Amino acid sequence: MPTSPGKQPEQRDLFRGALEMMILRSLRRQPMHGYALVQHIKQRSKDLLQVEEGSLYPALQRMLRDNLVKAEWEISASNRKVRTYRITPAGIKHLEHEVSSFEQMLKGINLVLSPADF
Amino acid sequence: MHWFKQLFTRRQIYSDLSEEIQQHLAEKIAALMAAGMSPKEAASAARREFGNVTSIEESGREAWTWPRAESVLSDVKFALRKLKQSPGFATTTILTLALGIGANVVVFSVLNGLILRPLDVPEPSNLFQIMHGKDWGGSQSYRDYLDYRDRDASFSGMLAYQYLRAGVRVGKTVAQSWGFDVSGNYFDVLGVQPAFGHFFHAADEHGPASAPYIVLSYDFWRLHFDSNPHVLGETIELNQHPLTVIGVARKDFHGTEPLFVADYWIPLVNATQVTGFDDLPYRDHYAFTVLGRLKPRVTPQQATRSLNIVAAQMAKEDPKDDGLTALVRLAGPAGDEQDPTKKALLGILLLAMLVLLAACANLASIFAARATDRGGELAIRLAIGASRWMILRQLLTEAVIVSIVGAAVGSFFARLLLGVLSRLQIFGDFPTHFMILPDGRVYLVALALSIASGIFFGLLPARQVWKTDVVQAIKTGCLETESFRRLAVRDVLLAVQIVVCTLLVTASLVGVRGLMLALHVPLAIQPEQVTLAQADLRMAGYSGEQALPVQKRLLEAAQAIPGVSAAAVSDGVPFLGGGGDWFVYRWGTTEFLPSHMAFDALSFLISPGYLNTAGTRLLAGRDFTWHDAGGSPRVAIVNQTFARKLYGDKSAVGQRFALWETAKYEVIGVVEDGKYGSVSEDPHAAMFLPLAQGIGEVMSPSATILVRSRLPQDQIAAALRQKLIAIEPGAPFTIRSWADAIDLSMIVPRAVAAVLGVMGLLAAMLAVTGVFGMASYSVSKRRKEQGIRMALGAQPVDILRSTLHRPLLLLIGGSCLGLLGGVLTSRLLAHLVSFATPRDPLVLAGVLFVMTFLGLVATWVPARRALGIDPSRLLRE
Q1: Contact B467, A2 (CB under 8 A)
Q2: What is the pLDDT of residues B365-424, one digit of tens each?
Q3: By CA distance, what is B23's nearest residue in A?
Q4: Of A2, A54, A61, the CB nearest to B467
Q5: What counts of helices (H) and strands (E) characterise chain B?
Q6: Model-level pTM?
Q7: How many CB atoms lie within 10 A of CB B857?
Q8: Is A58 on the interface with B (CB under 8 A)?
């Protein structure tokens, strides 16, 4: 039996923007390293979002490239060498823009899905 | 953006990423252990939740790369590494493809150089040739040219030219040379500029002998005048007629004939002084090629219509133009739809493509086998997260690399071969230049062909990859192969190879058979042991009228050479450009108009004894004597075709015919039909007239001395040269053996047979390796099974039948299909080969023999291997 083709990160494209938004939002609150970010997102979503932990990193690399965040090696409170991410002014601007357009979209979708007209 | 900085910091970025991920995992493991897991459980749980580290790192890195370009680059690197690991495989595949591509490059270059390339003049696309209706090709009379030029409005300019062959005196020696005599507007209509000096113009023509100028070609100037810039104003003698050098053409301008490289150009109004014959006044003397520049927005069809209106007017005014028609087509070989060379080359190109197809089929099965063998590796790569598309891309990259390297190697050798071919001078002293070296267009075609074939044979094994079951593949170490029972892709590939091979073997046998038959065509001459000395006596300053005594003296000198059994003199001989072409009229014709002629016949002016020396049999009547001279009745000897065409079944001897008002002849002899220009020509009417009488009032200034002798050719040639030079030091004699000259005229059938032979050989090699590969594969694949069958009592015959059954079936089926294809392509081959067709029983038998032989060769070793299976050993293993 041939197996089905393996799942690709690209297949979560729909999620990519959302993941970035969540990362930026979290970093805006306070700078964090990757592991902490994952834990934070999991807690805040009350485990409703099943994020594969690793998928965070490609997103972080893209944001580093686009200068939305910056990273620095630091020693954490628990005495670990961690790479801490901070949001940049460009990142803040991007986040606001993304959030507002996401809200617009959600509003639109809600209007369409709302049963009022039917 | 920051891409330049990124280029240098990338390594740091990547290692940061890896380290960060490792830290993440470590922190996660620590957290899990703190929650009570064992270290081992924690590690595997952390990895599970994290996902595929390698592929996440990879997509993280992709943020920093130009993903397409870089992953292609890494594919290429990997493919090169893989190919280096198996040099045997790489060499075989590259050479196979190099043969296929190389063959195509050679053929396409020749096609490109001889046929597709336009004339080397500015704006060749609006330069058209005015053809003389259907029957007369491109030759026009000068008077008709003048009328077309002056009365027709479709062209912005119209020029005329013809070949000119003359002895040119440089210093003290006289050398043969070839040029053009051209209308005054020649250079202006073409729009070419001189390298220095100036060209002559239409305004320089003021009637006969009014423009004694000559323009030299660049190469001629370089060779004979040592690039002397003070050549302008100097006098050059052509056939002892002085002309003033007024200019030198540019290096890349060779005139208006493909292949031909002109030494010089002179105004046609001055050609009579050089040639001794006035080509200009006769409306039925078709000697010139006419080219014209179409005006903008005039189509060739419109021009043809308008020229035909002019032609109809001309026919009304002068009955010699009765039935005159015109046809406009692009100048140069590109415009010639009926060009036999073009058809032949297209045919050969098709066969070369078939060789490439066979090569690709071969490579496809090699690549498929390789993909099967590498199944373990590919399966592991699939299992650790490579996508099928990545694997495919990898295999495809390998195929395309092989094909590009193959194309480079093939093109390199093709270039070497073409370099040799382009320097050939196959037309004796007629200066030619084969511009067949590959240009950009050829290399582009080679590249396109190679990439197309790479994709073709790379994609076939791709099917396997797509259908692979990873788990199964890892277990068995090879990719799932298609069932051996069904018709597999492999079988189709092999069948294609065999069909193509049979086709090409058929073609090559037809070529060889055609050549064999051509060598035995009755020529009506016996050229062996005949040596020829040819000279144009005009080059020594004699006119036609003065030539006869010289011709006689030369003949007497040749006859006096010891060891010469027979000798004769003529104006020309078959196969060496001899033979004028004249309209023949029935006796009693009063109006000698082209529309009234019976047919056209070749003429040879010969001395008594010519027929005997040449070895042409006289079937009826008598040979000439020296008494058949000026003043005595005009007599002729004709060939059988001439006699049959004019007199039917009646005896020709004693009959009469006429060439024009004052040239009326009585037939005194009939000779056998022969070949006069090429061995494959159709029977042509020919007439032999006494050299001492000339044709009508025209005496020939050419002299060909024929000498038959048993002495070695070089000895007789030396003696002949010495004797002739002593009599006529001013004439440049060309001395050669007649048989060699005829061999030279056979260069085309020889070349075709050689090309077809090489292609047949290539295809045969490919087919043998194909069948061999399949038979070996089938034997090795089923060794165990056969061992068991042998142990159970199967006979050798049964073993052979079951292992070789499939390749043999394919061989037989493919051969039959190929043979059928060969017979169906008879018409294509007819463009290439005269005398033989695939329907020739000898050819058919030959093909069957060759294919059987190839089958035996290819299956011999696998069969031995199958019979050599030792069941007891196999069962122990």
Answers
A1: yes
A2: 888 777 777 777 777 877 777 777 778 888 888 888 888 899 999 999 999 988 888 777
A3: A82
A4: A2
A5: 27, 22
A6: 0.70
A7: 13
A8: yes
